[in-house]
């Protein structure tokens, strides 16, 4: 281990995940007071010395995204002014990731703006999990370690759907053309077939499933995605898969955003189960939903932090 001390701090967006990460690393969670003044402004006070230390801040920029992003920026600034040697922003869920390009005239590229803000505040490295588009790494001028929930989900899939080291009749499904590469990687690891859902989106957050490319008849369909927002795509896709003869539909998605009527849609859907990580804390109503199950990404993120700190390979986690 290097001589530099390792410290993990947390904002308020996902304290339980930060605690699990610190537990994995066998260190106490850093003592930082992150609160609000009476007018709503963020107040941060680092309660222990970080001078010359290797520091990590765990903070998902999930809803309320602006509040959590501002907390992250202020914590980074506090660590920088306290003379931390390295400041790594650990952002399990990177908010604004879907605003990664100009899809229409006079739109902002907010994912790039967030990157600029994090760097300007003083972040010297980034760690994130399953970015909506991997090209966001290129928005940063500091090292960026992009993690994948693949090991977590593959382990669970093998427990749930494999018998005597042989998979049941499975098909991995990409819910849209953009997720084909991700779904293909799962299909290759699981040695099963691949299907793709062709969808049309007439308006934001409104999805119409049009066609399915691939054979799903008589098979257990596993949809793989990076996030679930309103669950409109997910539930319509499940119906389409069943109409094409799938014997059941399960969904694996890294980030449980669950905005709007997502929980109600999942509860009343034809989905067997929705499996997510704790990159974002589950809402109370999601915890009560019998179709939603959460797996922890703490060991994956904790191991990535350990390897960054010791200067060893992170890519080998995903071989």
Q: What this model shows, in words?
A:
The chain is an alpha/beta fold. The chain contains 9 helices and 16 strands. The two termini are 24 Å apart. The mean pLDDT is 94. Strand 11 (193-203) and strand 12 (206-213) form a beta hairpin. The strands form 4 sheets. Strands 12-11-10-13-14-15-16 form a 7-stranded mixed beta sheet, with helices on both faces. Strands 1-4-5-6-7 form a 5-stranded parallel beta sheet, with helices on both faces.
Itemize the secondary structure elements and their pairings:
Blueprint: E1 6-10, H1 15-24, E2 32-36, E3 42-46, E4 54-58, H2 65-81, E5 86-91, H3 110-121, E6 125-129, E7 144-147, H4 150-161, E8 162-163, E9 166-167, E10 170-174, H5 180-190, E11 193-203, E12 206-213, E13 220-228, H6 232-243, E14 248-256, H7 262-267, E15 273-277, H8 284-288, E16 292-295, H9 298-310
Parallel strand pairs: 1-4, 4-5, 5-6, 6-7, 10-11, 10-13, 13-14, 14-15, 15-16
Antiparallel strand pairs: 2-3, 8-9, 11-12
Helix pairs in contact: 1-9, 2-3
Any idea what the radius of gyration is?
Answer: 20 Å
How many separate helices?
9
Outline: globular
- The SSE order reads EHEEEHEHEEHEEEHEEEHEHEHEH
Determine the fraction of residues in helical runs and give it as a percent range. 25-40%
Strand composition percent: 25-35%
Low-confidence stretches: none
- Write down the overall mean pLDDT: 94
The beta-strand count equals 16
**Taking strands numbered 1, 2, ... along the chain, how are they ordered across the largest sheet?**
12-11-10-13-14-15-16
What structural class do the secondary elements suggest? Answer: alpha/beta
Terminal Cα separation, in Å? 24 Å
Q: Please outline the major beta sheet.
A: 7 strands, mixed
């Amino acid at each position: 281990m290097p001589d530099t001390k390792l410290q993990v701090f947390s904002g308020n967006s996902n304290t339980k995940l930060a605690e699990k990460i610190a537990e994995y690393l066998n260190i106490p969670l850093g003592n930082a007071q992150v609160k609000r003044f009476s007018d709503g402004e963020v107040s941060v006070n680092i309660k222990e010395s970080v001078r010359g230390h290797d520091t990590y801040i765990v903070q998902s920029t999930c809803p309320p995204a602006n509040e959590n992003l501002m907390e992250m920026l202020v914590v980074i600034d506090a660590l920088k002014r306290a003379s931390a040697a390295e400041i790594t922003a650990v952002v399990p869920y990177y908010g604004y990731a879907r605003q990664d390009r100009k899809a229409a005239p006079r739109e902002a590229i907010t994912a790039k703006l967030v990157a600029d803000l994090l760097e300007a505040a003083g972040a010297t490295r980034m760690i994130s999990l399953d970015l909506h588009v991997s090209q966001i790494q290129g928005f940063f001028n500091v090292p960026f370690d992009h993690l994948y929930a693949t090991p977590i989900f593959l382990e669970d899939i093998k427990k749930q759907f494999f018998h005597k080291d042989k998979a049941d009749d499975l098909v991995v499904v990409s819910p849209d053309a953009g997720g084909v590469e991700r779904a293909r990687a799962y299909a290759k690891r699981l040695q099963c077939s691949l299907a793709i859902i062709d969808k049309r989106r007439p308006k934001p957050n409104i999805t119409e499933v049009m066609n399915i490319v691939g054979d799903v008849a008589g098979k257990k369909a596993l949809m793989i995605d990076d996030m679930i927002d309103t669950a409109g795509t997910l539930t319509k896709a499940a119906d389409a898969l069943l109409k094409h003869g799938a014997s059941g539909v399960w969904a694996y998605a890294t980030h449980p955003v669950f905005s709007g009527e997502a929980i109600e849609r999942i509860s009343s859907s034809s989905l067997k189960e929705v499996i997510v990580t704790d990159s974002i804390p589950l809402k109370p109503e999601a915890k009560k939903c019998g179709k939603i199950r959460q797996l922890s990404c703490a060991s994956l993120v904790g191991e990535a932090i350990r390897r960054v700190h010791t200067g060893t390979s992170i890519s080998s986690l995903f071989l």
